[in-house]
Design a protein that fits this description.
The complex is a heterodimer of chains A (about 270) and B (about 325). Chain A is an alpha/beta fold and about 270 residues long. Chain A is about 35% helix and about 25% strand. Chain A folds into 2 domains: about 180 residues, Rossmann fold (3-Layer(aba) Sandwich), CATH 3.40.50.300; about 70 residues, no CATH class. Chain A has a 6-stranded mixed beta sheet, sandwiched between helices. The longest helix of chain A has 21 residues. The radius of gyration of chain A is 19 Å and the shape is globular. With about 325 residues, chain B is mostly helical. Chain B has one domain: ABC transporter involved in vitamin B12 uptake, BtuC. Helices cover about 70% and strands about 0% of the residues of chain B. Chain B is built from 14 helices and no strands. Chain B is globular and about 65 Å long. The termini of chain B are far apart. The chains are: A alpha/beta (about 270), B mainly alpha (about 325).
């Protein structure tokens, strides 16, 4: 973890690039409660970066800061070499940061196809007036987006549920549709909030495979939060460990695994 | 054909036409409710305000003239010009869009993520404010609205239906204005459906209606969508205002038609555009037929309560309405 300013090469030979996002001294307070305390870390282009920690460690809060749902009390967020001004979540999305949610936030009344189509919202150019006046052009644009969406549907192996309202799908498939919607935005950074929460072993394996494939085939940078230590260690290139809002470890899975603070946090050794 | 049946048919047709107007008002409710979960109590007042503005602009009335005269001791009322109907309509649409922006900017923006009941209360406040504001702006006298829509019984319909009955039957009596209203409502519903199903903004609108958080995460601006949906609701209110205004003059009671939209919504379901239309038609026909058949037996005036009793029955047996989304909960 010493000199990585120019990127590094992973054990399996993937090239990891320069810094994509950097969190500098982030602190987040809700009234008197400190959810995140002075945390800094970076996310590099092309890597799978995990944020782990016990319940209530502040992982989700951190993800919400990255995606603009929370505004940090202190600290700076740098994205693609520029300091990010205070932004609304939809503006963050327009910058190319897509996300999924811990408790699935899909449009339940809409079909799988329509759900994933909304993921392309930020890429659609034709405005409302133009759409009304040049129906043909809007239609052509719609078709192009549709094609991309069909590719994602194939990729995630959900062709059979294209027209099904997602509210009717089982949990594991809903998670997959949500991933599809995030992918549809062709994000520069993909945030996954507990992508495997509540899944059975088989579903977890599927999801892990998709995450690795997304990273591999599209070169998408991924930051994910996960509870399940085993899964995280297999998936990620580097891991940030949080506990009680503080960063207690940062490094490759092996480094983290052998970090005494991390072991203590997970085994529940008292803090004194 | 026996006269009784012919009369019943005429009553039914007139009921359909009245139903179209109910449906137009209900449509405005459904649009806002779908997109934001807000039950917009002010929809009726929006229709009144739109109609007042249209008449005022068309006749070249000076807005706030009473206020101006009272403060400055002047005596101004009119600009002295009259606008063609189409220009006045376009300008009124502009005013309604502006109103949508103001409502978002000064009310909704501060109430994001509040309980529905709070948003509902806010629209009650808005309704009374708009009512008073419309009064100050355009005066409270009853105005006639004339945008050149055909009025009076359609001679064509009368001529072509006279053969149905015997001597003394002169054909169905149907107001041309009602026929126009039916066509306008049909066009409006078709274009709104196309818009919401096949356009980017339509999809965004449905997305926002479904889940705010998810909508934000795919890059949809809630504020833009709200302005959009209130603008569309304002436009629908204008159409309803024109139709009702042309029929019975622009006056305060116009805002009360909103109350008739309530049973329509309970029948059709709060979230369904076709539901608003079908609900409106059922109420329109139902209350006219009921008045025609049962009315004389119970002393008449059943139109005042029939719709509400029907809605009550629906609430008991099918609370989601005819077309409403069935409430499915995972347990």
């Amino acid at each position: 973890m010493n000199d990585m300013s120019q990127g590094y090469t992973t054990a399996d030979g993937r090239k990891i690039g320069g810094t994509l996002m950097e969190m500098k001294n982030i602190t987040l307070r809700f009234g008197g409660v400190v959810a995140i305390k002075d945390i800094s870390f970076d996310i590099r282009e092309g890597e799978i970066r995990a944020i782990i920690g016990p319940n209530g460690a502040g992982k989700s809060s951190m993800l919400n800061v990255i995606s603009g749902f929370y505004i940090p009390t202190e600290g700076e967020v740098w994205f693609r070499g520029e300091r990010r001004p205070q932004m609304k979540p939809y503006q963050v999305a327009q910058q190319g940061i897509a996300r999924t949610f811990q408790n699935i936030a899909l449009f339940k009344g809409m079909s799988t196809l329509d759900n994933i189509m909304t993921g392309r919202m930020t890429m659609m150019k034709t405005g409302m007036a133009a759409q009304a006046l040049w129906w043909g052009r809007a239609q052509r644009e719609e078709d192009e987006h549709r094609e991309k969406v069909e590719k994602i549907i194939d990729f995630l192996e959900i062709q059979h549920i294209r027209k099904t309202p997602v509210g009717r799908l089982p949990y594991g498939l809903q998670k997959r549709v949500e991933l599809g919607r995030a992918l549809a935005a062709e994000p520069k950074l993909l945030l996954l909030d507990e992508p495997m929460a509540g899944m059975n072993v088989e579903e977890k394996e599927d999801m892990s495979r998709f995450i690795l494939d997304v990273n591999d085939e599209f070169g998408t940078t991924i930051a994910l939060i996960e509870h399940d230590m085993g899964v995280v260690m297999d998936l990620s290139d580097r891991v940030v460990v949080m506990d009680y809002g503080k960063k207690i470890g940062d490094g490759t899975p092996d480094e983290v695994r052998n970090n005494q603070d991390v072991i203590d946090a997970y085994l529940g050794v008292s803090h004194d | 054909m026996p006269d009784q049946i012919l009369y019943a048919m005429e009553v039914m047709i007139n009921g359909l036409m009245a139903g179209v107007l109910y449906a137009l008002v209900a449509l405005g409710f459904v649009l806002i409710f779908k997109a934001s979960g807000i039950f917009n109590y002010a929809q009726g007042v929006l229709a009144l305000f739109a109609a007042l503005t249209l008449v005022g602009l068309q006749q070249g009335q000076i807005p706030f003239s009473h206020l101006i005269n009272a403060v400055f001791g002047t005596d101004v009322h009119h600009f002295g010009w009259e606008l063609p109907a189409i220009v006045a309509i376009v300008l009124t649409i502009g005013v309604m869009v502006l109103l949508a922006i103001v409502i978002e900017r000064f009310i909704l923006k501060y109430l994001v993520n509040q309980e529905p009941i709070i948003l509902f209360m806010a629209t009650i406040g808005l309704a009374y404010f708009m009512e008073g504001f419309g009064d100050i702006m355009w005066g409270s006298d009853i105005k006639t609205l004339d945008v050149g829509l055909p009025q009076g019984a359609s001679a064509w319909v009368e001529d072509n239906t006279a053969w149905l009955g015997g001597e003394g039957f002169y054909g169905f009596f149907i107001d041309k204005l009602d026929m126009v209203a039916a066509v306008v409502a049909a066009v409006l519903v078709i274009s709104l459906t196309l818009f919401s199903q096949y356009s980017k903004q339509g999809r965004a609108l449905r997305a926002v209606a479904d889940d705010h958080q998810a909508a934000l995460s795919v890059g949809i601006s809630l504020r833009f969508i709200w302005v959009l949906v209130w603008s569309i609701a304002g436009f629908v209110a204008l159409v309803a205002g024109i139709m009702w205004g042309a029929k019975s003059g622009v006056q305060f009671s116009l805002s009360l038609i909103a109350l008739k939209a309530l049973p329509v919504l309970m029948l059709g379901g709060f979230t369904s555009i076709p539901g608003a239309i079908v609900g409106g038609l059922i109420i329109g026909v139902g209350e006219k037929l009921f008045e025609f058949t049962i009315g004389p037996m119970v002393g008449g005036a059943t139109e005042n309560w029939f719709a509400y009793v029907l809605a009550l029955l629906f609430l008991v047996f099918r609370p989601q309405g005819l077309f409403g989304e069935k409430i499915i909960e995972r347990v």
